[in-house]
Amino acid sequence: MADILEYYRRGGEQTRLGAGAGLLEALRTRDILARYLPAPPASVLDVGGATGAYAGALATGGYRVHVVDPVPEHVERAGTVPGVTAEVGDARRLRQPDASVDAVLLLGPLYHLLERADRVTSWREAARVLRPGGVVFAATISRFASLHDGFVRGHYADPRFRPIVDRALDTGVHRNTEPGRGFFTDAYFHRPEEPVDEAREAGLAVDRVLAVEGSLWQLGDRLSELLADPDSTRLVLDQLRRVEAEPSLLGASSHLITVAHRHADR
């Protein structure tokens, strides 16, 4: 966890979603939330919500949003976002009471928990704090993301990169603890079916698994050009929405979002 905290304290999360593949991730995540969240003024617990990139937009839209994040610097910044409250916390040990919120966002925690037991515990905590019928949105990174990213960003020129990819492909574990590498941080990369199994083990009912960026994130610099034009952006979002649940394309996306709900009778 220390390596993960050090990575985020560099401040990259403040700008990551502003351009290129990060911007596409943000646009698509907001689109998915807009379609599947309960209507405002529902209460949303944004676990791993970082600096409030999604929380702020939700609060502006009339939601009651509280951010929980393990990085104090993130919490301090999120707490300044209008309409958003924030606290330091852990997805595996939430302080919120049972059945106290309408929706939980797990848009970061699951891929920073390398052990399956920890990920299932986070799913269970989300289920615990949800009201019956409440919904959870959980983001995961694709098992194959680093393989593709290596070509998009030219990482294979560094001989240290391929062993990282090989390990991730074999085990799902992405290890990157040596200071100075630009290859993300320690993480777990899911196959598309894995978050479904984890959510069900935690007692949740899974509604859908959706590709966030699809395969378009692999366009690199060309993607920034597309998203700079409003008409092209609308076309990208419309077309990705059409294939977001296509099983044969899920693994090509950099991120997936699994949408699940707490049973109404539990």
UniProtKB/TrEMBL annotation:
SUPFAM superfamilies: S-adenosyl-L-methionine-dependent methyltransferases. InterPro entries: Methyltransf_25, SAM-dependent_MTases_sf. It comes from the Bacteria. Pfam families: Methyltransf_25. Residues 44-134 form the Methyltransferase domain. This is Methyltransferase domain-containing protein. It comes from Actinocatenispora sera.
